[in-house]
Amino acid sequence: MTPAGAGTARENGAGKPAPATDGPILRIEDLVVELPGPHGTRTRVVDGVSFDVPRAATVGLIGESGSGKTMTAQAVLGLPPEGATLTGRLLWHGEDLLAATPARRRAVRGREIAMIFQDPLAALNPTQRIGRQIGEVPRRDRLPRAEVNRRVVELLDRVGVPEPARRMRAYPHELSGGLRQRAVIAMALAGNPALLLADEPTTALDVTVQSRILRLLADIRAADGLAMLLVSHDLRVVSHVGERVVVMYAGRICERGPARDVLRRPAHPYTAALVRSVPAVRTRTAPADPLPGAPATPANRPVGCAFHPRCPLARARCRAEPPKVREVAPDRWSACHFAEEVPGS
Amino acid sequence: MSTGERDLLDVRELYVTYGGRGGGRRGGHAAVAGVSLSVAPEETLGLVGESGSGKTTVARCVAGLLRPRAGTVTFEGRPLGRAGHRPPELQRAVQMVFQDPRSSLNPRMTVASVIAEVWRTHPVTAPEGDRTEALHRLLAAMGLDPDVASRRAGDLSGGQCQRVSIARALAVRPRLLVCDEAVSALDVSVQAQILRLLAELRGRHRLAMLFISHDLGVVHQIADRVAVMRRGVIVEEGRTVEVLTAPRHPYTRALLDAALDLDDPVPGDGTADGGAAG
């Protein structure tokens, strides 16, 4: 089988006027993640993924279940599941993290690259006060206790937790869902990271809390020049905070480019279908013409283009040849043989 | 607005308390504090609110899974008691579809046996003649292939599972479907399929629906009327288009302000669009 992404590793170099003057903070090149499957088989859950996270930018990584979006984030963090094999390159300021020693990986994780998870209750230790958990990284730096406490209060204050000196003594269960997620964000910020990985950071939250947390993430980003990789199934969230988006399906990239352009004029039939599926809140719309079938899974990835069984544009070529990611318009990248025919593109 | 005697479902002054003692005395936490609502035949009422608003508690009372501390729940004027104590025709009339189809279906049972079980419980709804053929017809109406009949629920995708849950509910020819976050756990592309299916089945089977959801967009698509709950009470109720485009209650307004649509600027952030409209 030819990996679909084999040709994508070089596509980024094509002399585009880059938005930032420096190189990207993170460049993912032809990332392949394989997990052990049944009967000694290997399942390729991430299949030749390449994209950049520019300095101080927010990149939204969109996909449904089985798309490989979370696995991609875990690979970047250096915490892939047991038994996974990773190939390709993860260039962190130019240094390949996949080739780094375990000690170097540990040094990067939690400090240069930090992660916020979907479920703050699962991310926090229920038996420890939140101040202790947030202070873990400063404590590892052997700062004196008063200094650690001062830092914890500062972090909690920064993420908008009221009465931080009192709240740092609370246990996770004593806080509301929104405050818990703020504590988790404080924990992630404790190591002064340059990149924040956020996996569905607001999915478990109520809508009024969600908008405040998104606001907080936007503020932190603006203040610190932090880059963020936001993993989400929710196009609405990504359209609000992402400057760029990457759309994944069955372990591969469908499309990537500037968020607004991609979501307004998709260049892949799958993105177009996702956008149509999002019900509008403020106007009454009829339920969309849905895609047939269920999302393909990496274990049962159709040959050719993985999306072809659900695709309205599919034809013989799509059933035979996996499309490569190609530039279909300036800074617009699509893995569709017929990207130019996507309605509204 | 209640249409009085023409209502199919009528909930009056419902009170539910969790954590209190003796099922009725004071103390404990009031999850629902005086909710009244009604659903007319073939009407869909959307019930929206955030977590802890009490919307699921109302649904569970209607389904008979919870006993209210006070208040009445009637169906065409007949009281709906606890699920197990309802006369069979009332049991059939009100069916429920839950958020997580995987936990509401026994993963080891085949789809055929899931449906056979409800037909055994409600023999009057069991098809005459060839049951296999009737089962395949039912599955086809849900957009499922006949070969799904022999599969175990645990081997199905999330969307297929939710179709089977809806098939199980419709197999007994209900008049009211209570959907509690029925599309919330599904992938977006699958969510659109199930919404389409529900809208179509509602027309074909002349179903009324009590549609509970935290997603205002989904409710805007499917509900005729909407009731907004907060902390155990309904704060606003009316025709969906009116409530969601011209809300009167500050809480409804706050919910709408916080809800994201594709393509708006970050809520409350005047800088997101650089001042340029559109």
From TrEMBL, chain A:
GO MF annotations for this entry? ATP binding; ATP hydrolysis activity
Bilayer topology reads: Peripheral membrane protein
Q: Which GO terms describe its biological process?
A: peptide transport
Highest taxon of the source? Answer: Bacteria
Q: Where in the cell is it found?
A: Cell membrane
Q: Where is the ABC transporter domain?
A: 26-275
Chief subcellular location equals membrane
Q: Name one GO cellular component term.
A: plasma membrane
Task: Give the PANTHER family listed for this entry.
Answer: DIPEPTIDE TRANSPORT ATP-BINDING PROTEIN DPPD, OLIGOPEPTIDE TRANSPORT ATP-BINDING PROTEIN APPD
Q: Which family does it belong to?
A: Belongs to the ABC transporter superfamily.
Protein name (record): ABC transporter ATP-binding protein
TrEMBL record, chain B:
Q: Per its UniProt record, what CDD domains does this chain match?
A: ABC_NikE_OppD_transporters
Molecular function per GO = ATP binding; ATP hydrolysis activity
* Biological processes annotated in GO: peptide transport; transmembrane transport
User: Per UniProt, what is one Pfam family of this protein?
Assistant: oligo_HPY
Alphabetical list of Gene3D superfamilies matching this protein: P-loop containing nucleotide triphosphate hydrolases
The organism's superkingdom is given as Bacteria
UniProt keywords (A-Z) are: ATP-binding, Nucleotide-binding, Transport
What protein family does this chain belong to? Belongs to the ABC transporter superfamily.
Q: What is this protein called?
A: Peptide ABC transporter ATP-binding protein
What is the organism of origin for this protein? Answer: Streptomyces fuscichromogenes
